[in-house]
């Protein structure tokens, strides 16, 4: 019997639209968080240990995403009743509230739209996917983790800041870049640009194709 092949969105694709029931009510994605970034992430299941630590991580650092004009949206293949019970349980036990919409994807519709179901990992649980979606609803970066390895919240925030910085200043970001570090000036694309680059002064210059500046 052949396994079902799920659609796998790619970087640069328009984020697939959907309507879904969430812990914050029914949402149509194309109308959600207009003019904002969205970090859409999936977890395998409610009431599981790794997922609880991850969702708590998003919740406790939500103010940092707010400061970056970014909305959070979670998902798992559980019912809305399971989501509500889990959110309430974690809040009662730890004081941490998952104050962002969590999609109840019991029919796996959104999971399949976003390639979150990967049969060789699990047929019934979404992998730990993270989609960074810009205000134009374009997918800009994708992360995938297996069921048994939690994500790194510092890295999620780092790449979000990097994407926004690259867009704002029309630059690229080097290895291990973090806010405050020098950025890469895009290389010249013609001979006139090369001549100009050779005459310009930068605080850090390896050659014409690799120069850095401060913002």
How do you describe this structure in short?
The protein is an alpha+beta fold and 215 residues long. Helices cover 30% and strands 22% of the residues. It starts with 18 loop residues before the first strand and ends with a strand.
Description:
The chain contains six helices and ten strands, in the order βββααβαβαββαβαββ. The protein is α+β, with helices and mostly antiparallel strands and 215 residues long. It has two domains: 19-169, 3-Layer(aba) Sandwich (Glutaredoxin), CATH 3.40.30; 183-213, no CATH class. The chain has a five-stranded mixed beta sheet with strand order 5-4-3-6-7. The protein starts with 18 loop residues before the first strand and ends with a strand.
Span from first to last CA?
Answer: 56 Å
CATH topology of the largest domain: Glutaredoxin
- The CATH homologous superfamily of the largest domain corresponds to Glutaredoxin
Report strand %: 15-25%
**What class do helices, strands and sheet pairing give?**
alpha+beta
Question: Widest sheet: strand order?
Answer: 5-4-3-6-7
Uncertain runs are 1-5
Major sheet details: 5 strands, mixed
Give the SSE order as H and E letters.
EEEHHEHEHEEHEHEE
Shape: elongated
Name given to the CATH architecture of the largest domain: 3-Layer(aba) Sandwich
**What would you report as the Rg, rounded to the nearest angstrom?**
20 Å
Annotation field: number of helices: 6
Number-wise, the strands total 10
Provide the CATH top-level class of the largest domain: Alpha Beta
Chain oligomer state: single chain
**Range of helix content:** 25-40%
Q: What is the residue-averaged pLDDT?
A: 92
Number of domains as seen in the coordinates: 2
């Amino acid at each position: 019997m052949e396994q079902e092949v799920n659609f796998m969105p790619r970087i640069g694709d328009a984020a697939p639209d959907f309507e879904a029931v969430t812990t914050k009510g029914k949402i149509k994605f194309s109308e959600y968080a207009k003019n904002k970034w969205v970090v859409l992430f999936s977890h395998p299941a409610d009431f599981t240990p790794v997922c609880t630590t991850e969702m708590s991580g998003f919740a406790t650092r939500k103010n940092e995403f707010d400061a970056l004009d970014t909305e959070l949206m979670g998902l798992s293949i559980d019912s809305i009743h399971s989501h509500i019970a889990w959110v309430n349980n974690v809040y009662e036990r730890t004081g941490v509230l998952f104050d962002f919409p969590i999609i109840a994807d019991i029919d796996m519709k959104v999971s399949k739209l976003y390639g979150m179901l990967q049969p060789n990992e699990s047929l019934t649980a979404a992998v730990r996917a993270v989609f960074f979606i810009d205000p134009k609803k374009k997918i800009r970066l994708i992360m995938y983790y297996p069921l048994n390895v939690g994500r790194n919240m510092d890295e999620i925030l780092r790449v979000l800041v990097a994407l926004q910085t690259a867009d704002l200043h029309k630059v690229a970001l080097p290895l291990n870049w973090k806010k405050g570090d020098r950025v890469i000036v895009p290389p010249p694309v013609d001979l006139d640009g090369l001549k100009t680059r050779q005459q310009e002064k930068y605080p850090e210059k390896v050659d014409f194709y690799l120069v850095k500046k401060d913002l």
